[in-house]
Amino acid sequence: MHKIFPRVRRVSSLANGRVELLGNQYPTDSVTNSHYADFTHISSLSPLVSPFKNFDELSFPQDHPGRAVTDSYYVNKDLMLRTHTSAHEVEVFRRGEDKWLLTADVYRRDEIDGSHYPVFHQMEGARIFSADAAGMKEVEERTIVIEDVPHVSATNPSQPTHDPLYSELVAQNLKLSLNSLMLTLFGGAGVGSGAPLRVRWIEAYFPFTSPSFEVEVFFRGKWLEILGSGVVRQATLDTANVSNKIGWAFGLGLERIAMILYSIPDIRLFWSTDERFISQFKDKQITTFQPYSKYPSCFKDVSFWTQQDVALHENDFCDVVRDVAGDLVEDVKRASGSLCVFPAMTPLQIDRFVHPKSNRTSLCYRINYRSMDRSLSNEEANELQSRVVSQLKEQFGVEIR
Ligand code: FA5
Ligand code: MG
């Protein structure tokens, strides 16, 4: 790398007191790649897109789970609500934009917990350069290259049509740009209190980028994912008629950013009309949210057999719960095996029990009812629970155990 990029230099560790970028060795004062002003900002695009735009144009394989009706909201087979802002990548690149941000509402059938909601907002950002020595010189001028921290690896490879050096450089520019964004966002006064905010990069996989990365922030005792990113797949750029370019893209969850900035503990609060919530956000100031009260929760379990031929997806279950109880549900967890054992902190990921003789599947869920604004009575929770049960029977023919 030295020969091609003579400015390459080794830099040492970082911390700016407020934000700690773990595993990245950029000194804070060098993270200066922010020129947000010259990114074109796009919004107001229709949320209704074709599955072709949402998936095919982005190289999603035919059997990708995201395409299923259990994961996405379809109007019909040719029209759906976009599940991510990446659905617009090809059209924006095709317009000739090479440095852009796009914000939009996106929709997913997803699990129920404090950081997932079926409608949320993403900001997509991308930057592409000429895939030649001149373009790479531009990247290099804007990047502090760290020679001993590989961003491209056997498990997170560069693409076959990319020069691995170009890929490495673009990946480093991506990380530097996002680190700079995070330092600007989270490094300001009033964000969090006491200990610095811990931020880490991890390897990821997306059908439309390689290498790919995610960023997580340590928030309220857990790592919270805030964005996905990577080097744009050449097929995407080819489809957009900009084959001579190479670059990066990211998509970040705006509610999650706001949760971290304002210390908002639960994503449902963004939909609250309670004055005690709304009145806390004034004059574009970042303030720490003062919880007015945490009302008691009330959990109810439901166990049932599903019919042999009717698969009941977790997201189907969650949809029934949302339809009946809306924001009165804090989270849904699934129990392990045939016994209703609920391990703490393990939402929706334990194996189901399949009866060896009848081949029927037994499922057991715990629904945690809690209002954000008031005390929920046990009678009210019982009433909601019985409506959930009857919807399960009606829509999926389940047999309650
Ligand atoms: C994507 O949506 C990719 N399109 C991101 C991307 C863009 C990758 C460009 C590469 C290049 P993901 O499914 O991880 O990735 O979602 C991105 C972010 O959206 C997450 O990190 C999270 O912050 C937010 N997010 C995802 N699901 C939800 C949800 N149900 N509720 C709230 N926020 C969510
Ligand atoms: Mg993700």
TrEMBL record:
Pfam families for the chain: FDX-ACB, tRNA-synt_2d
Principal localisation: mitochondrion
GO BP, one annotated term: phenylalanyl-tRNA aminoacylation
GO CC entries: mitochondrial matrix
Subcellular location: Mitochondrion matrix
Keywords: Aminoacyl-tRNA synthetase, ATP-binding, Ligase, Mitochondrion, Nucleotide-binding, Protein biosynthesis, Transit peptide
Sequence ranges assigned to domain Aminoacyl-transfer RNA synthetases class-II family profile in this UniProt record: 46-291
InterPro entries: aa-tRNA-synth_II, aa-tRNA-synth_II/BPL/LPL, Fdx_antiC-bd, Fdx_antiC-bd_sf, Phe-tRNA-synth_IIc_mito, Phenylalanyl-tRNA_Synthase
Keyword Mitochondrion: yes
Domain spans labelled FDX-ACB: 293-401
EC class: ligase
Gene3D superfamilies: Bira Bifunctional Protein, Domain 2 (3.30.930.10), Ferrodoxin-fold anticodon-binding domain (3.30.70.380)
GO MF annotation list: ATP binding; phenylalanine-tRNA ligase activity; tRNA binding
Enzyme Commission code(s) on record: 6.1.1.20
Reactions this protein catalyses: tRNA(Phe) + L-phenylalanine + ATP = L-phenylalanyl-tRNA(Phe) + AMP + diphosphate + H(+)
Entry-linked PANTHER family: PHENYLALANINE--TRNA LIGASE, MITOCHONDRIAL (PTHR11538:SF41), PHENYLALANYL-TRNA SYNTHETASE (PTHR11538)
Family under the similarity heading: Belongs to the class-II aminoacyl-tRNA synthetase family.
Name of the featured protein: phenylalanine--tRNA ligase
Natural source organism: Roridomyces roridus
